[in-house]
Amino acid sequence: MIELGRDTIFALSSGPPPAAIAVVRVSGPGALEAAWTIAGRPPPPRRAGLRALKDEDGRLIDRALVLVFPKPDSATGEDLVELQLHGGRAVVAAVERALAAQGLRRAEAGEFTRRALANGRVDLAQAEGLADLLQAETEAQRVQAIGAVEGAVSALARRFGERVLALSAEIEAALDFADEDDVVVDLREVGAAIATLRAEMANLVARPPVERLRDGIRVVLTGPRNAGKSTLLNLLVQREAAIVSPIAGTTRDVIEVPVVVEGVAYLVSDTAGLVDGTADPVEAIGVERARAAAQVADIVVWLGDDAPPAGAVWVWARADEEGRGAPPSGVDVATASGRPETIAALWRLVGTRTAQAPPRADLPALNRRQRDLVEEAAAELVADDDPLILAERLRRVRTALARITGADATEAMLDTLFGRFCIGK
Asked: Which CATH architecture has domain 213-353?
């Protein structure tokens, strides 16, 4: 585990002032002494006590609630003190000056949680979940993030690890007691168990990743020139996000607009009109980007008059336009600028089509790092008639699964993760 400095840190852990209440946290070996110095005799552990906070010259700063959490049973695993102040800027600034005057330093982004990781209060998967929880903007994001914080991903990795460890024990027994008649290991049964485990890991990796909740379900509007894609984008996101013009080929690049509908985050993309060939090099780049966007979309919305690509939602746009006529057979929904109910109908259809795209609330979803490790583990789950080779493969599987909870956490990895946190977390 990565060693952290033994200095004592402090930070404002609530929202920026002014506010009704401000919470300042202090963590480290000098936290209790700092509480004595600034607040006098602290209250009993985990019991709030009203104290007069004073600066280094004995002048009253504020009257605040003080809570003390001795190590190791604290959020960080260190001695920790919370000061619940009146939330004015001057009050918070005075308390921070008084703490700094004792030699304490301001915390860096995510440093409280980083110390909790170093002291075994949380593992890496839980810390990643907490980072997602702090940035959650939709209910779906919150549900998945709180599951990770509560250990859903970690528990899944441990269960896989325990099953692999049991298989390893059988193989090791076969190697260590090969000459003993009473130790019999059926490699066919081991192979069947390995195949089952591999299939379960493959199913887990095939689930939608947690990034879908944060980045949004990718909805790409595509079709020929002047099909009404930009108009439809503006109607879907309810603002003028794209330039609308009767001139064919106005849109030259992919325009991405985030929107939340019914608690689900979407990333809706307008694209250049598709053509088989063009002499305009800029338009050619736009067409190529449009096709690339459609290939990685979770759902494609096709606005052409001809039959759509397989699996796409076929929209008959501009249905209220004079002379437009009736939509052809097979169109999923007809939309019109002056009929909001048609846009609502399209959103309902998109929601139905993408119902399986977001991670399910009752199943843990993995982030990219975790998915890569499960894929790495699954790739090693190959039955082999040679127990020595099989034992080594299973060891690699256990190592990959252990890394999900942080067995291989590096400074660079942790710097990136905790850079997503606020200062006081």
From this structure: 3-Layer(aba) Sandwich (3.40)
